Amino acid sequence: xxxxxxxxxxxxxxxxxxxxxAMVLFPQVTEAGSKSAIIIWANSIVPVLxxxxxxxxxxxxxxxxEKLPPRVYSLAVACLSGYPMGARVSADMVKTGALSLEDGKxxxxxxxxxxPAFLMGTIGGxxxxxxxxxxxxxxxxxxxxxxxxxxxxxxxxxxxxxxxGHKITERNRERTGRKAGLLDSFTQSILSGFRAMALILAxxxxxMIGMQLLDAAGLFRLIGNETVCSVLKGLLEMTAGxxxxxxxxxxxxxxxxxxxxxxxxxxxxxxxxxxxMAEGSGIGMKDILQRKxxxxxxxxxxxxxLAGIMV
Length: 311
Description:
This protein is globular. By secondary structure, it is an all-alpha fold. It has helices at residues 2-25, 27-61, 70-81, 85-96, 101-111, 116-127, 130-150, 159-179, 182-216, 219-223, 226-236, 238-246, 252-265, 267-277, 285-310.
């Protein structure tokens, strides 16, 4: 186990070294990638996600967690907030004992979703069609529920453990309530929201720079197909790939189906954010990657049928 971890750390260190060297050698490419990431973040992500991040964190701090079943709460917050809040809330409940580790992994299979404001607003704007956006939204949430059935575990949540988790949450809420009022809690929620936004921006910048470096190296020119390149970029960074896909010379139906796959998979950027949010809970990259891969596949199948009817 230690040998495996040591090899993984060496691989990560080597990749970071190569990436850093590439940024130093190609500063203009690095600058262009950073600027593109900041523009997407400021125009398409912050206006949609930041208010919901603050709101959902404030609800959690006021102690309303125990009012919803743990298996429902993660999905509700994720629908309000978007990526990567589903992973964050599910991991928090595993840490507090409201969910077992196995149940936490199961909840992830259907609770790692993005928000309807992002789907109907940002993605709808990319596609230029409210009907296409509705198909992506229906495919995204419908396939999330199917994904939950696919990953359903035979071991249900232990009631005594769930009760214990609620008691822990309640004690934490009472301690927090004694130390801080609602205004202080709201201020902390604002800070938490901006920290989450900063994390998203950092991942977005890194993946955008990576895509720009691969582009400068001629990889995407070698492929030679605009649609395939856009999908590959979307598998790295969902928002950028969806934007590029919308400009491709293919039918709106095909754009809708491929966008549903990219949004539901989330891209390696969202997966990296989710892994960071789940740190310390026992939920790892393999767990998140597997569940998002099946989510993306199911969303594509779902969207094929819906797009043929609605788009």
